[in-house]
Amino acid sequence: xxxxxxxxxxxxxxxxxxxxxxxxxxxxxxxxxxxxxxxxxxxxxxxxxxxxxxxxxxxxxxxxxxxxxxxxxxxxxxxxxxxxxxxxxxxxxxxxxxxxxxxxxxxxxxxxxxxxxxxxxxxxxxxxxxxxxxxxxxxxxxxxxxxxxxxxxxxxxxxxxxxxxxxxxxxxxxxxxxxxxxxxxxxxxxxxxxxxxxxxxxxxxxxxxxxxxxxxxxxxxxxxxxxxxxxxxxxxxxxxxxxxxxxxxxxxxxxx
Length: 256
Ligand code: IPE
Ligand code: IPE
Ligand code: MG
Description:
With 256 residues, the chain is α/β, with parallel strands linked by helices. It contains eight helices and six strands; from the N terminus they run E-H-H-E-H-E-H-E-H-H-E-E-H-H.
């Protein structure tokens, strides 16, 4: 069973500060191109925005921050850009994990990491182990992640754990699938942010975004900062999360 309420089955608690923020960090390439720099310069500057955002979220009291760093479809990019992204991931892990650890941040990586080079897989394992006991903020990096990959791997894992369900598929419930998703240990995101101007999900957390509040900004990821984050939080605070109910029910204090 998942540890947290599912937004389509129970009504999760809501509050002023989003407990889980999920971000599609988009616009690195356009940030660089607009400055007549190679696209990869945008990715390098994007790492600074990651640092700022992790710090700002930790200060604000966010418990889970999930960042989309590389999608299942990003392998389609030119090989040299993919290779720079992998280098940046390696360097960031080598340089930043000590600081994350000192700041009480737990690092998790979700996605099909088996396709990464051994050195990167090793660093991911070490970083997760080193920060496992931290509890101030869980920073999840989605790398070679896709929402469809996640649903396929969850289905496979469920049937491997309970093969009898194949003969009786009507017994499969939402919670069975949710329990095998790559982020089954986290609540669903409250707030989704996408920078860079596109208004799409691009195969991010398809299942978990069912009732997440969506926020889009034209700001390119390397320019994202605390003020931008606060604007997103302000928009979030102004939303009425109804989870299928009516406003009148909410006003009457309905809990279910
Ligand atoms: C996001 O920035 C980073 C990754 C997808 C790895 P982009 O590289 O997609 O930047 P744009 O969208 O081309 O500007
Ligand atoms: C989404 O950005 C993936 C990441 C930010 C890692 P993309 O730039 O790959 O998305 P599309 O191709 O514009 O939908
Ligand atoms: Mg993009």
